[in-house]
Amino acid sequence: MSSIENDKDNNSSFDKIDSDENILEQVSSIQKPPIEVLFPTREQYLDTIAQLHKNGYEMCIDLCVVDYLTHPGRFTPQNIAPQRFEVVVNLLSLKMHKRIRIKVQVPQDDPTIESIFTIYPGVEAMEREAYDLFGITFLNHPDMTRILMPEDWEGHPLRKDYQVGNIPVNFKEAPKTR
């Protein structure tokens, strides 16, 4: 029995979805062919992902973070306030031959969001990478530790306000040509 089937039996996030209520009708979206983009709130995120999984999006092909520190006025739907960080998830349905993108705003002062590991176990490393490089904490992740940087590393190197070190380079004198 797979871990997903196991989770279905153990009151996981799949059980949170009321079959009479469709979370996808409550989530802001835009149609941008060939891909639809959903903008759930952080509170709607896990239920939205679970509903999409039930609707046939069986594969999470990417999870990444965007730091909009220098672009605060970008486009978001009217009822979604832009935040510094945006978690972007791309799902794929092989049966329906469709892709869908989910964009969730994450504020700088509380950079946390629920993990979707119980629904898509393949995101384990992607969520760890987002934590390591951007500092976004995925709640209920089984191993929220650094994956690329050393454990004692201070800061998150892909944040736009990360101070880049300065190592002086000493060049040798160029050899003389004849």
Q: Could you explain the architecture of this structure?
A:
It is a single chain. This protein has 178 residues and is an alpha/beta fold. The protein has a single domain (3-139), classed as 2-Layer Sandwich (Beta Polymerase, domain 2). It is 17% helix and 24% strand. It is built from three helices and seven strands. The strands form two sheets. Strands 1-2-5-4-3 form a five-stranded mixed sheet. A two-stranded parallel ribbon has the order 6-7. Strand 4 (85-93) and strand 5 form a beta hairpin. The longest helix is centred in the N-terminal third of the chain and has 13 residues, at 42-54. It is elongated and about 75 Å long. The chain starts with a helix and ends in a 39-residue tail after the last strand. Residues 1-13 have low confidence and may be disordered.
Strand-helix topology:
Blueprint: H1 3-9, E1 28-32, E2 35-39, H2 42-54, E3 59-67, E4 85-93, E5 98-106, E6 112-114, H3 124-134, E7 137-139
Number of domains: 1
CATH architecture: 2-Layer Sandwich
Helix coverage percent: 10-25%
Cα-based radius of gyration, to the nearest Å: 20 Å
Low-confidence stretches: 1-13
Shape: elongated
Q: What is the terminal separation in angstroms?
A: 74 Å
Main β-sheet description: 5 strands, mixed
Mean pLDDT equals 86
CATH topology: Beta Polymerase, domain 2
Instruction: Output the structural class.
Output: alpha/beta
- Fraction in beta strands: 15-25%
The strand order across the widest sheet is 1-2-5-4-3
Helix and strand element order: HEEHEEEEHE
